[in-house]
Design goal:
It is built from 17 helices and 22 strands. By secondary structure, the chain is α/β, with parallel strands linked by helices. The protein has three domains: 179 residues, Alpha-D-Glucose-1,6-Bisphosphate, Chain A, domain 3, CATH 3.40.120.10; 227 residues, Alpha-D-Glucose-1,6-Bisphosphate, subunit A, domain 3 (Alpha-D-Glucose-1,6-Bisphosphate, Chain A, domain 3, 3-Layer(aba) Sandwich); 101 residues, TATA-Binding Protein (2-Layer Sandwich). The strands form five sheets. It has a seven-stranded mixed β-sheet, sandwiched between helices. Strand 10 and strand 11 form a beta hairpin. The protein starts with 18 loop residues before the first helix and ends with a helix.
Length: 548
């Protein structure tokens, strides 16, 4: 996919999302239940869509929320449901719709104090904190309304069950099916009250998500070391939900932190265009992060989060760190410094995240558990303490508290940002410098992901692969050692294939949230070897499609 001519530049105001039209479409357009594209569909991160495309409208949210109410009733859950929403235009509208349905179903619901935006990790942390020591009917769960880093036109809806992380297919398949039944039946079985009535319902209570999160940070990050270091830190919330967290964090722990952008605007006009020309609040993209990169010399370390704050972007005086690079340093640092964690505590990673993590694990004598893409797969490993740190290449990760207890089971952007500051304070070197030291010892990987449009045929072919149908003898001039269509860490289907040699690998899988397929490749030799792997991978995909 070629780089757009306007990538890294602010959008012309005339091209910004038409927010009034977007909001009008949410309320005035209805999905056609007979059109598969307009039905409720839970991907790797919940249901996503756009109101103007009839894929994220009031009817969708009413149906999904009713389905969640019925699901939790069937599961016997009577504890509070913690709900949050990010700064996308459709998020607050969807939040209001959801609240109307939750109140009508008499669900004990915890809404943010002063109706503030709520970061995804705050919801996960709140669920786990409530559920600690409780069981059965007392357990709580949550809803997070966000399309993550997606463009301003999009909306998203996620359900987090009592384990605090994204729901697995055992829950989402039931919720999705019931929501589509409700849509097909004209929402007749959806219970709902007016928004003003919902706000005054006794089941709807305020909860201070900010204090609950900020006050507990010292249990997982050495905030004192950061404060004593005198590091000058900068942060750009990218117009997202982390904005409400950073000043309370700075004030409580006495750290020198400057918020460089306090704007919240649903057009996200202050975020430069991404590589494809779209406004996408991706804090791992050098194009979207070009403004903060231009300020890197003003700070010892700076960072950013996406709108719902489950992703991180780390900017040193040298660079915007590639997520794979930073996550490898995180694993090395955490397993070295968290001495209260069990000695058997390992690393969790998705199959498409850098294999440098495997080398870190081998060096430290720790197991590495590989799962399919999607943070939901890490939940059992984080709640059991089997993995101390879990991550995925799309700039997402979380880890255990100092004492080995579970902090969150969803990705946590602010946490990973603060960890970078702790590293620099205690190691006396930036995460970039630490990465160079690490790769000098373990090898320097070269990694790239290429996105291409996907149609239903390609998606079906990739998802149906087996080790037998995806056979390959040589990749990048080396003998193929392994062909994976199931993740070795939990034997779950990866929705594609990963082919591995001694010094490299590639993987290909359709996205669960966008109409693209992703081709990942990594070499531990050099750029030329990476190109060779990509060429072989491209030929492999072409042969697959030609044979079907």
């Amino acid at each position: 996919m070629p780089i757009h001519a306007e990538a890294g530049k602010l959008a012309d105001p005339a091209t910004l999302e038409n927010i009034p039209a977007l909001m009008s479409a949410y309320y005035t357009l209805s999905p056609d239940p007979a059109d598969k594209a307009q039905r409720v569909s839970f991907g790797t991160s919940g249901h996503r869509g756009s109101s103007v495309k009839r894929t994220f409208n009031e009817d969708h949210i009413a149906a999904i929320t009713q389905a969640v109410c019925e699901y939790r009733a069937k599961e016997g859950l009577q504890g509070p449901l913690f709900i949050g929403f990010d700064t996308h235009a459709l998020s607050e509208a969807a939040y209001r719709t959801a609240l109307e349905v939750l109140a009508a179903n008499h669900v004990q619901t915890r809404v943010s104090k002063d109706k503030a935006f709520t970061a995804t990790p705050c919801v996960s942390h709140a669920i786990l904190k409530w559920n600690r020591g409780r069981k059965g009917a007392e357990l709580g769960d949550g809803i997070i309304i966000t399309p993550s880093h997606n463009p301003p036109s999009d909306g998203g809806f996620k359900y987090n069950p009592p384990h605090g992380g994204p729901a697995g297919t055992e829950a989402t398949s039931v919720i999705e099916a019931r929501a589509n039944e409700l849509l097909a039946d004209g929402l007749k079985a959806v219970k709902r009250v007016p928004y003003a009535e919902a706000l005054n319902a006794p089941e709807i209570q305020e909860f201070d998500y900010i204090a609950a999160y900020v006050d507990d940070l010292a249990s997982i990050i050495d905030m004192e070391a950061i404060a004593k270091s005198g590091l000058k830190l900068g942060v750009d919330p990218l117009g997202g939900a982390s904005l409400v967290l950073w000043q309370p964090i700075a004030d409580k722990y006495g750290i020198d932190l400057t918020i460089v952008n306090k704007c919240v605007d649903p057009t996200f006009r202050f975020v430069p265009r991404d590589k494809d020309g779209k406004i996408r609040m991706d804090c791992s993209s050098p194009w979207a992060m070009s403004v903060l990169l231009g300020m890197k010399d003003q700070f010892d370390l700076s960072f950013a989060c996406d709108p719902d704050s489950d992703r991180h972007g780390i900017v040193t005086r040298d660079e915007l760190m590639n997520p794979n690079h930073y996550l490898s340093v995180c694993a090395w640092y955490l397993l070295k410094t968290r001495t209260q964690w069990p000695a058997s505590c390992g690393i969790g990673k998705t199959v498409v995240t850098t294999n440098l993590l495997n080398r870190v694990g081998a060096k430290l004598g720790r197991k590495v558990i590989e799962t399919p893409a999607g943070f939901k797969w890490f939940v059992p490993f984080m709640t059991s303490g089997e993995c101390g740190f879990c991550c995925e290449e799309s700039a997402g990760g979380s880890f255990l508290c100092f004492d080995g207890s579970t902090w969150s089971t969803d990705k946590d952007g602010p946490l990973l940002c603060l960890l970078a500051a702790e590293m620099m304070a205690k190691e006396g070197a930036s995460p970039s410098e630490l990465y160079r030291r690490l790769t000098k010892e373990l090898g320097q990987p070269v990694y790239q992901r290429i996105d291409s449009p996907v149609d239903d045929k390609t998606r079906t072919v990739l998802k149906s692969l087996t080790p037998e149908t995806a056979r390959m003898e040589v990749l990048g001039g080396q003998k193929v050692e392994d062909v994976l269509t199931r993740a070795p860490g939990n034997d779950a289907a990866i929705g594609g294939v990963k082919i591995v040699t001694e010094d490299g690998w590639f993987a290909v899988r359709p996205s669960g949230t966008e109409a693209i397929y992703k081709l990942y490749a990594e070499s531990f030799k050099d750029e030329a070897h990476l190109k060779s792997i990509q060429q072989d991978a491209g030929d492999f995909v072409a042969r697959l499609l030609a044979s079907k």
